[in-house]
Amino acid sequence: MATIADELTIERRGHAASAARRRTNFVIFLGPAIVLTVLFFVVPVIIDIAVSFTDLGRSLRITEFTTEQYEKVFRSDRRLTQVIGLTFIYVFGTLAIFNVTFGLILAITTTAIRNVSGSFFRGVWLLPRMSPSVLYILLWLWAVSPTEAGLVNQVLMQAFGLDAPLDLLTSAPIALIVISNGFIGASMGMIIFTAAIRGIPEHLFHAAAVDGAGTFATIRFITLPALRWPISFVTIYQTLSLLVSFEYILLLTKGGPFYDTTVYALYVYRRAFESGQYAYGAALALFLIVIGMVVALIGWRFFDMERLLQRPRIEVH
Amino acid sequence: MMIHWKIGTAALLSAALVGGTAAFLAATPLFAQETVKLELWSRQDPSGPLRPGNVVKAAERLNKELEAEGSPKRVEVVVRESPAKGFDDDALQLLKVFGIGEGPDMFIAAHEWICAFQEDGFVLKLDDYIAKYPQHFGTIFPSLWSSAKCPDGTYAIPQDAEARMFFYNKKLLREAGYDDAFIDSMPERTLSGDLTMDELLDIAKQVVEKTEAQYGVLHRPNKGPDYIMAFNAYGNDFADPETGKLLLERDKLAAAFGWFERGVKEGVIPANNTAMEFDALRKEFYTGNAAFWMYGIWDLGSVAFPTYGLPQDEEAFFKDWGWIAGPAAEKGGSPVSLTHPIVYVIAADTKEPELAVRLLGHASAADLNTDHAVTTTHLGIKPEQLEDPRYAEAWPLARATELLKITKFLPNNAQFGELNGIIYAGIQGVESGRLSAQEAADFVIEEASSGLEDVIVK
Question: Most buried by CB count within 10 Å: which residue of A129, A152, A231, B215?
Answer without folding.
Answer: B215
